[in-house]
Design brief:
Helix content is 19%, strand content 23%. By secondary structure, the chain is an alpha+beta fold. The strands form two sheets. A six-stranded antiparallel sheet has the order 3-4-8-7-6-5. The chain has a three-stranded antiparallel sheet with strand order 2-1-9, with no helix packed on it. A hairpin with a 7-residue loop joins strand 3 (104-105) and strand 4 (113-114). Bound molecules: zinc ion.
Amino acid sequence: MKTAAFAFLLSLLVFSSCSNKTPKPLATETQTPKNNTMNTDNKDLTPIVKTNEEWKNLLSPEQYRVLRDKGTEAPFTGKYYLNKDKGVYVCAACGNELFTSDMKFESSCGWPSFDKEIAGGKIKTHIDTSHGMVRTEIICGRCGSHLGHLFDDGPTATGERYCVNSVSLNFKKDSL
Ligand SMILES: [Zn+2]
């Protein structure tokens, strides 16, 4: 009983604190971020935790192999390798916004390559010592899915090269 009463009080409190604020319609937010590409309206970084079974149900076998089993797609085969459209690249597993098309550069390595990431902890790194190499793995900051690797031999001013599997990405094309 006590907990129920407390929960009721709490909901009243929450309700009243909410109703004190003038509700602002989200009309100013557009679906796709424009202009300032370093900021996006997708700020939700609440971790997404799912079991392997749940991921298997959500993802295609190839997506599961790359995103959850840290696989690598064959070079020069990915659907976004040569993509030059304007828009935002998101994590294929959870929709977390990772890169914009402005960050993509033409790379001969065979995978979509970016010279920076959208700011705000959307991507996490960790040292990968598999296959007898020491590399920096990049994973989605939200759902922990494998994206690719980060190298410091980028040809642009940042010197960085985010080498990402197309399978790990979805592309949201800008609507003009
Ligand atoms: Zn993700």
